[in-house]
Every structure is written in C-alpha cells, then in structure tokens.
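Good morning,

Attaching, inline, the backbone tokens for the sequence recovery test we're adding to the shared suite. The designed sequence is right after.
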C-alpha cells in the first residue's frame, strides 16, 4: 500500500494527464483524415514516375494495392473510388443478382410504354429514312416513282411501324438474358463514375461517419490512460512512440468495426451492439436504389449496352432478322413485282439497309434521358424492396467490399499518426517518470 502511495505521489500529473489528451486528439485526427483517405480524391491525383510501373510489379502484393503504383504514379486516390469496379462486381454478386434477372429489370421498365415512345419519336422521321435508303440503294427507282407512289410507300412503312417496334421490344425482352449482363453494366458504370460509390456512403451514412470521427477521440482518450500508466511505471523514452503505433492502429480498427460490425444486433449483458450502417439498412436501401435506378440500371444505359456493349453485334443481328418480315409486309402486294423490277439482290440490299437503319433509330429513344428518368421509378421500387430483404451480412459485405482489402492502409495510416503523436509528446514534455 505504501509502495502504491509512493508511486502515485511520484506522478508528474501534467505529463500523465496530457498523454490521454494527446492520444484522444490524435485518435480524432486519425479517423477524420482516414475518412478523407477513404473518399477523396475521386480521381487519381499525383505524378508519373518513369520506371515505377515496372518496379511496382515486383513489390509485395499489399504495396501494389496502393492507388497509383501499378500505373507508375506517386499520389493518391480515395480507397472507395479506387475500388469502385470491385465494389460493383461484389454488389452484383451479393445483391443485384438476387434483386432480379435481366428480364425482371427489363419488365420493370414497361416495354409496352417503351414501344409507344419509340413509335412517337420515330414516326415523324420515317419519310426521311425511306428516302435516304432508297436514294442510297436505288436512286433511279426512287426518282422514277411519282409523288403519290412515294407517299404510298412511306405510308405503308409508317402503318407497319407500331407492329415493327412491338416486335423489336418483344424480341429484346425474349432474349434479354442473353443480351444484357447487369454485372458488366454495373462494373463499367462504377468504373466510369467512381463518384457514384462515394455517394452511396455519403448520402445515407454521413451521420455515422461523423460519429466515427467523434469516437476517434473517445477511443484514443481511453486507450491513452493505460499508455500513461505504462509510461509512468517504466519511464522509457521509446514507450510513447511505440505505444502510439498501437493506439493509432487500434483506434482505426475500432472505428471500422463501429461502422460495420456486428451486422445483426448482439446482446452483451444489458447492452445491445449493432453496426452503425447495418442498423439503418432500410434507409440505405432507399439511397442505394435511387443511385442504381437513376445512374446505373437505366433505360439509357441498357440501350447503350444493347447496341454498343460486348453483345451489341448479336443484338443488331437479332433485330435485323426480326425486321425483315415487317419490311416485306410494308412492300405489300407489289413486293414480287418490285423484286423482279430491281432484281433480287438489289431488293434484298434495300431491305437490309432499311432494317439496319431501323435498328439504330428504334433504339435511339432508349437513350432519351427524360424518358429514362420517368421509367426509373419501378426499378427504384424493385431495388429498394429487394435490398431491404437482403440478409444483413450480405448487405454489410456489399457496402464494405470497396474497403475490406485496403483497410490495412487506414490502419497503417493510424499507426504512423500514432507514432508521430508519441514523438510530439516526447518532444514537448520529455520522458515520464
């Protein structure tokens, strides 16, 4: 008892009390700057270094994950936007694949309304389309036709248009599972617009992220108390920097745990513990659904993917084949006579050209941003409903996917700042004892 009293009497209280204050402030700075590292900048900012790309390939795998190194640059890109494509891939595997098939998403976009919109947009352009094709393929035949003959041909084509377009949207719907790959679409969109992934976190989780920063001070302060005791007992100059590394690492690890773990409520005596993000899964689902419906799985993006994506050639060929009979019907009773007059090869060339032009024109309304926004409501409702039904563990994995493998950078950043805080305290107050 006397030894303990002597130990307490010997305390340099200014030195002792300032240690947890220092670790608290450093813990706050660690979590605040950690959030900056997570989300900013959205694009890589740095300098290109000749030869660095080759050197980086022989570095340990963890170091290769530092944004910019594999591209031969020194700088930084936020961890979340840097891993946007990976998050997109895991989001599809964990959630979007369970939200619905490509056919489910396509049906939510109401193909009948798409067909009506295509007809409304395309019909006024039909005379120009027919004239362009005829002038390109058989200008003498087109010039020799009297005005009433030209009008009759255009009117027959226009009369066939609703049936043709309905056939197009039906054919897309029938083969959509082979033509549309949501995983590639989501990954490509997240890669092009990494800010979308940042929005997912920011739009619904800013309150929790701010709380994580505040808890950085609490964790740092509490961890600083045993550090102060050890420093007083052993009074070694190296203790504060070394223990600062531990405090910095643990503070960041606790901050990440606070956000994501546990995914489901757990009781520890009178206390219930639940991750900050998973406890608001319902609100997160609404934000996630809004971003997916407004910026990822949109009619506009589906149209681009169908025609310009990796399966675009297949889409075009399928639609051309489905349009040929409709073009034959548009020629009407005169089809056989026209085929004889212009020749079978030229007739087939005209039919093929009209079909090719029609494919491009009929899918142009898919890229109408305003129409796409109107059709997004049902996609939003579907994604929100299914996201809310996800098991909490899958929801957490979907949200954490962009961070998990790179969390070591945050912890290393915390350890470095903790070391710096220990060195700073040592420089200002000296060795405890």
């Amino acid at each position: 008892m006397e030894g303990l009293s002597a130990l307490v009497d010997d305390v340099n209280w200014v030195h002792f009390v300032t240690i947890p204050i220092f670790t608290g402030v450093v813990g706050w700075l660690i979590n605040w700057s950690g959030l900056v590292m997570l989300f900013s900048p959205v694009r890589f900012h740095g300098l290109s270094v000749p030869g660095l790309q080759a050197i980086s390939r022989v570095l340990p795998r963890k170091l290769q994950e530092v944004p910019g190194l594999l591209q031969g640059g020194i700088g930084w890109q936020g961890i979340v936007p840097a891993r946007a494509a990976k998050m997109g891939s895991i989001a599809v595997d964990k959630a979007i694949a369970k939200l619905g098939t490509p056919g489910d998403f396509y049906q939510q976009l109401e193909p009948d309304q798409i067909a009506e919109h295509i007809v409304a947009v395309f019909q006024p352009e039909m005379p120009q389309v027919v004239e362009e094709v005829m002038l390109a393929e058989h200008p003498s035949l087109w010039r020799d036709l009297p005005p009433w003959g030209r009008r009759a041909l255009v009117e027959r084509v226009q009369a066939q248009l609703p049936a043709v377009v309905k056939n197009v949207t039906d054919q897309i719907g029938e083969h959509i599972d082979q033509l549309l790959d949501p995983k590639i679409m989501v990954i490509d969109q997240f890669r092009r617009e990494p800010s979308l992934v940042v929005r997912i976190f920011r739009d619904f989780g800013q309150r929790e992220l701010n709380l994580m920063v505040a808890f950085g001070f609490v964790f740092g302060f509490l961890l600083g108390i045993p550090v102060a005791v050890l420093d007083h007992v052993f009074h070694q100059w190296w203790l504060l920097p070394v223990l600062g590394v531990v405090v910095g690492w643990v503070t960041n690890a606790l901050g990440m745990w606070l956000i994501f773990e546990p995914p489901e409520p757990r009781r520890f005596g009178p206390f219930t513990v639940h991750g900050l993000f998973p406890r608001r899964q319902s609100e997160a689902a609404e934000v996630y659904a809004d971003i997916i419906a407004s910026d990822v799985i949109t009619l506009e993006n589906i149209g681009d993917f169908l025609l310009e994506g990796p399966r675009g050639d297949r889409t075009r060929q399928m639609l051309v084949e489905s349009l040929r009979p409709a073009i034959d019907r548009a020629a009407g009773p005169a089809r056989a006579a026209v085929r004889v007059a212009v020749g079978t090869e030229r007739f087939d060339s005209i039919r093929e050209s009209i079909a090719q032009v029609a494919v491009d024109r009929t899918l142009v309304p898919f890229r109408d941003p305003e129409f796409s926004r109107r059709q997004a409501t049902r996609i939003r409702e579907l994604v929100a409903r299914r996201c809310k039904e996800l098991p909490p563990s899958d929801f957490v994995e979907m949200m954490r996917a962009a961070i998990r493998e790179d969390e070591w950078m945050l912890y290393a950043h915390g350890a470095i700042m903790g070391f710096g805080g220990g060195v700073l305290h040592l420089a200002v107050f000296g060795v405890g004892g």
